Predict the 3D structure of the following.
Amino acid sequence: MTDTPTTPRVRFAPSPTGSLHVGGARTALYNLLFARRERGTFILRIEDTDVERSREELSEQILSAMKWLGLDYDEGPIHQSGRWELYRAAADRLIAEEKAYRAFETPEELDADRKRADAEGRAYRYSGAGRAIDPGESDRRARAGERFVVRLRMPAETIVVEDMIRGRIEFPPDALDDFALVRSDGHPLYHFCVCVDDADMRITHVIRGDDHLANTPKHVALFQALGAEIPRFAHLGMILGTDRKKLSKRHGAAAVEEWRDAGILPEALVNYLALLGWAPGDDREILSRAEMEKEFSLERVGASPSVFDPEKLLWMNSQYIATMSAEELLARSLKSAPGAIPDRPAALKAIELHRTRVRTIFEMGRALASYASDPADYDADGLKKNVKPETPNQLAKLVARLETLPDWTAASTEAALREAAQEDGVAAGKLIHPVRLGLTGVTVGAPLFDVMELLGKETSLRRLRAFLERTKASGS
RNA sequence: GGCCCCAUCGUCUAGAGGUUAGGACACGGCUCUUUCAAGGCCGCGGCACGGGUUCGAUUCCCGUUGGGGCCGCCA
């Protein structure tokens, strides 16, 4: 009398009509986390039934974004475009069983109906005229070459959806009409393919965006018509832009790859996305994938929409940068470095100097590059603020002193600078700031003497001499 | 317009009848300090509104308001 424990089967089913959206990424993530937690199967399905809009390279793009995020699937990717036989057979069967029917209205006629309804201020519903056509008559007209769409015969009863996140939702029958399953050119339509596939793949839980909630009664009716078991549904709140509208390209940075290119670490993006709608229940914010996979549950997923906050993502990223090994960081920063970077040992030291000072690996790449190439120019405000008439003279004396240093360490250069300052009767800061500017071109950054040690004697002195020339020139 | 969903600091959230309503981001201050960060400490700031139910509502119910979504031979 015990139920056979069916292992959950979930899927992420993006349409390749654009790059992977952060909302899609979160949906994929929740499906994956649910599957791992429940020891189920995560399937990737590409919904490319729309031949006009779907593009192969976009589907590749989605795949690579998922790979980058580490969203691995157990089955797939399965392309709907390769399964037309399945949909055709299902449509034929539904027609034969009179659960669906052919409708012969032309697009123009439907359009006119829609316009009329609009003008009269009432909600448009398909008339259902096709229902009345006798099956024999329908077959004859189809054989005769008349064009038709296939429509589902919607039941005249309230459809109840038990949503795992929202609870019980009722859809009154007059809100739904007999929607189209197959176009007049024979191409199966989205809702139809979704249900045929979910049934075929034995999907047990449909975890998807809230924007599909209103479509769910259609799907329920379809599953019933198909004679398939109805999966459980869980509808996630939308991810919104700061204007509280559904996040889209329009908002900028809605695509996963934009964040990748901005130097966000995949672990950080995944962590951030996981927390957009789900929380472990305690105060932890930084969670490993293992922890998420262990603790994720749909019961703890919220129903309300959430605003995507780039600031918090950046913070999250900096948290990962703070704890990631220098080697790892170096490997990842390499792609972001705009130019040459120092040799490996120096780069690793530079990373330690900058890991708390950057929020993205893009910034880390820049920081690394700054050690390998001399500053091209100097911060204008910095020059104004830190270079006084007496500065070139003080700098010249400092350079002379540094030249004689037998060893070149943070300690020795600091001692030399402080002595020079004392000799001139000025605060060390009077020298530190211009030296930093001369060495790096900017007024902010890692502790100066560590930077000098890392740069080495030769490079440091070369940069300081160049800066000295510059300050003399602007001074006269 | 019809149907549906949502509603705790500016943002992400914890809370599941009795809490000084907790944490995080952001913001402000202090601290550390050669700069900038990071870190530490402190602070600012919230239950949309109105009715019920209840001894007692942020929490349950209804409504209002506000926001969002869906209404194609798109996905």
Residues 159 and 423 of chain A are 88 Å apart (CA to CA). Residues 448-475 of chain A form the longest helix (28 residues). Chain A has a mean pLDDT of 92.
